[in-house]
Amino acid sequence: MTKLTVGLGGQQYDILIEPGLLGQVASAIRPYTTAGSPVAVVTDENVWGYYGQAFIASLQSAGITARPQVLPPGEQNKSLAGLAGLYDAFTEMKLRRNGLVVALGGGVIGDLAGFAAATYLRGIPYVQVPTSLLAQVDSSVGGKTAIDLAQGKNLVGSYYQPKLVLIDPDALLTLPVRELRCGMAEIIKYGAIRSRKLFDELDVPAAGISADNIQGNAPGTPSQACTSTNSDAILALGTEVSTVPRSLNVAALSTVIADCCSIKAGIVSRDERDEGERMLLNFGHTFGHAIEKAYDFERFNHGEAVAIGMVLAARIGQELGITPAAATEELCRLLGAHGLDTSCPCRPSSLLEILETDKKSSTSWIQMVLLRKIGDALIQPLSFDELGDIVRSVEGKWTR
Ligand code: NAD
Ligand code: GLY
Questions:
Q1: Quick one: average pLDDT of 382-386?
Q2: Mean pLDDT confidence for 288-313
């Protein structure tokens, strides 16, 4: 088992990573439960279908009163209505301040359940049990909780740290390929901003992994997928379109998840509130969020939009003379090798108006995260006028 710690003074908490951990959640969360008080397990229908019954049964058989709350999947439920539904469910199940919320699912469930826990009864404890790759490497760690408004993403939220993050990489065996790619976008982000070594480990050999050796194994079957040509090629999905069941190199993924969580735990420990270093984690997110919003959160998943946003940020860095062209090329190549689209679907200048309503903007400045080189990023304040000029002057190169 890998154990990492997010150190926030008196509020530190652990991240535990271990294949099979879903079956051991009862013992891990017991210190945060009170006999007779319910534990609200918030999840979505997809995750519930694969893991819900067994998860609840394992808590119940350990004497924990677990009450499931199963939501429809999707970003549109990270909303005021979704939040109100959770408050109703919490009051209905008589959740008290000595109760516990468990967020079992992807980033949507983690952000929503976390914000519900942050605000219900002025704050009750919660535990993150992330089941998507994106949530395992990013959203479950660091305590950013939020819901979206019609005006934009994550516009209402709080910094509210979980008591524990429990990561079971085996859960990824049922994750659709499209969602695995979204997680890869965030993993590539960590490499791009902080670790050349991680970036290189994600590289996919030109010969790649054929579709033949990544299909067909049932969940739990040891994977041949990434070991046959390059043990470091973590998720060489290429143009693979199969969904589940499928095989994965869970051991390699576990290592990469731990690498990403370790980078994030360090950054959050030093800057919980996004006032400095933590902003680096927003690499690709400024334009990424705008792309998600421009298409009503329907066409692009978060990770897909972030992939395009990272390329836009790299090109902006190039225009400013900060990012070498070779770094942009490497980034595009690695994203593409993992099946992620890197071309902007619209005129980037059409995203500028959305950026201005982004919560991270002050009235006339935006903090752009730019690459100095692969593995090294900086925060560059740009005025909207400046950014607009740069984006407009080069946007012909970015569109399809
Ligand atoms: P998601 O929660 O919608 O999950 C993606 C899909 O995978 C869903 O359909 C879900 O039902 C399904 N799924 C999850 N785990 C599964 C499993 N093990 N097997 C089968 N299906 C499974 O999306 P996401 O990509 O996990 O998270 C995106 C959200 O995270 C966005 O709202 C984004 O804003 C947020 N986010 C938050 C932070 C943060 O720091 N709080 C960081 C990054 C992203
Ligand atoms: N995903 C960005 C952050 O947690 O700060």
A1: 91
A2: 94
CA-nearest of 67, 61, 63, 29 to 48 is 67
- Side chain identity at residue 292, one-letter code: E
Which of 397 and 291 is assigned the larger pLDDT? 291
Do 123 and 145 form a contact (C-beta atoms < 8 A)?
no
pTM as predicted: 0.90
Distance 97 CA to ligand 1 centre (A): 27
Q: Report d(CA 48, CA 85) in Å as an integer.
A: 17
Record the tokens describing residue 73, joined without a space: 């999947």
Closest atom of ligand 1 to 154 CA is 34
Kindly give the number of the ligand 2 atom that is closest to the alpha carbon of 267.
5
Ligand 2: residues whose CB is within 6 Å? 138, 142, 144, 278, 281-282
Distance (Å) from CA 62 to ligand 2 centroid: 34
316-372 pLDDT tens trace: 999 999 999 999 999 999 999 888 999 998 989 999 988 877 655 555 789 999 999
Q: DSSP letters along 61-97, please?
A: HTT--EEEEEE--SGGGSSHHHHHHHHHHHHHTT--T
Query: Taking Cα atoms as reference points, which of 177, 147, 203, 223 lies closest to residue 337?
Result: 203
